[in-house]
Amino acid sequence: MNSDADWTAAARQFQQDLGANWTKALQSFVPAAGANAPPLRFAPDKLQELRDAYVREAAQLWNQGLTTNPAAGDKRFASDAWSANPVAAYSAALYLLNARALLGLAEAADADEKTKARLRFAVEQWMAAAAPSNFMALNAEAQRKAMETRGESIAKGVQNLLKDIQQGHVSMTDESVFDVGRNVATTEGAVVFENELFQLIEYRPLTAKVYERPFLLVPPCINKFYILDLQPENSLVRYLVEQGHRTFLISWRNPDAAMADVTWDDYVGDGALKAIEVVREIAAAPQINALGFCVGGTILGTALAVLAARGEQPVASVTLLTAFLDFSETGVLDVFIDEAFVRFRELQLGHGGILKGQELASTFSFLRPNDLVWNYVVGNYLKGETPPPFDLLYWNSDSTNLPGPMYAWYLRNTYFENNLVKPGKCVVCGEKIDLRKVDIPVYIYGSREDHIVPIAGAYASTRHLPGKKRFVMGASGHIAGVINPPAKNKRSYWTNEKLPKTHEEWLAGAKEHPGSWWPDWSAWLRQHAGKQVAAPKRYGNARYKPIEAAPGRYVRAKA
């Protein structure tokens, strides 16, 4: 361009093109709800505001030219390789502008909240997949590495891709480093009972005396139990044993075709209820203490309601970690759930079959696509990197299947209809479920940034259990918030002795404490553990003899 007039004319034409492109984008966005859904409508004033903001910001990018990297605030484009390549930096900034505009359109839609949530989710998934960082032709950082390594990074990336295709999932860590029973799930113990559904592990005491009430852990059946026993320094199981609790744990079997007909009743009756019975018998204890984590908490809560309906109270106290009983606030997972989806799953799996673990794992990963999917696509395949060894991510990749009938019942009666909190609505193991009868002390933990069990959903349990309750909120997410050993002195947690109706009210009066929530829980648990007695010198008893060393063979089965 040779003159200011030429530049002005070009800028004016650029803005006109932007306006025309905005109109085309809006026209393509409108049918996003589906062919059979009513057309989306947008308030004209909101659309005009969004259009003006888009044109203004795009013009600013144009006027800046190729001199800066306005996208550097996003970690995907933070490398100086992007700044050193003006075209790449501009494409990244324009991509972020388009993402903001599309999310703005989703927010501006005149629709119910669920429809808007689905629009947001769809836009977020599409934008995460469309990022210029995901493509070698546009990723300046990957291109630089390819040149610096003389193409070796590309060759390694192809090898990584072929390996991941063979194993059926994207590698999040160097899985070759870990071996269950050797350097994860290493707390010493023995399997003292097993049936077709689970193995019961008893752990060796590390103290001369133990509390008279044994402790049973009910982990989620959607994942392997050893998230609670990764390595000695971050093992919740070992922490319990060190605190003097005689500790038992359910290791769920990884379902195969032989379990295609297993139901929710089976997980409650032949699972949690059977484990409670066996632990009491081995320890000769009238009552035990128990913990349920995630779906394990839902199973345990249901089992306690069955016992309450029978007039039995073999559990003295219960701990719920990032668990739903009330499914009224399920967060982003709610976008998937409607009558059509639930009915499809019931037809597909409700009368028999297996839901593959990789399908579940993919669903949870795409709740955070940039962190748990595309980050590894870029690192593994475009840059040819091997992700570092990380025990938590190894566990995350070790998926489990679910029996179809159990999954179909769970889907309808929890996520869709929220029946567990409706007294008498659900019948499990022949008993009508009424959580109001579960009148025992309960410690409820929720993680502030949990995307699977949102903190408000965890807090909702306080509204349905009548016993004395303590609610604690930890920092971080679904797993990192829970697995936070005191020795690392990381993060913080919040407490409030009052339990108002909503989590927002609770948080307004909560006090923050530095470090792990585990000692707070341990102090609470001691109040319900009974007196101390001599630690047992052998596993099991005359009826329940050791079957094999922990962690047992069930946890080693791959999906």
Structure description:
There is one protein chain. 42% of the residues lie in helices and 13% in strands. It contains 18 helices and 17 strands. The protein has helices at 4-29, 44-64, 80-83, 86-108, 113-130, 140-148, 152-167, 236-242, 264-283, 295-309, 339-349, 357-365, 369-382, 391-397, 404-416, 455-459, 503-508, 518-526, and strands at 189-194, 198-203, 209-211, 215-218, 247-252, 288-293, 315-321, 354-355, 402-403, 427-428, 431-432, 442-447, 469-474, 492-495, 511-514, 532-534, 548-549. The strands form four sheets. The chain has an eleven-stranded mixed sheet with strand order 15-14-13-12-7-6-4-5-2-1-17, with helices on both faces. The protein starts with a helix and ends in a 10-residue tail after the last strand.
Please list the strands of the largest sheet in the order they lie side by side. 15-14-13-12-7-6-4-5-2-1-17
Major β-sheet profile: 11 strands, mixed
End-to-end gap: 62 Å
Total number of strands? 17
Shape: globular
- Strand-pairing-aware structural class: alpha/beta
**Residue ranges: pLDDT <50 for 5 or more in a row?**
24-35
Tell me the β content: 5-15%
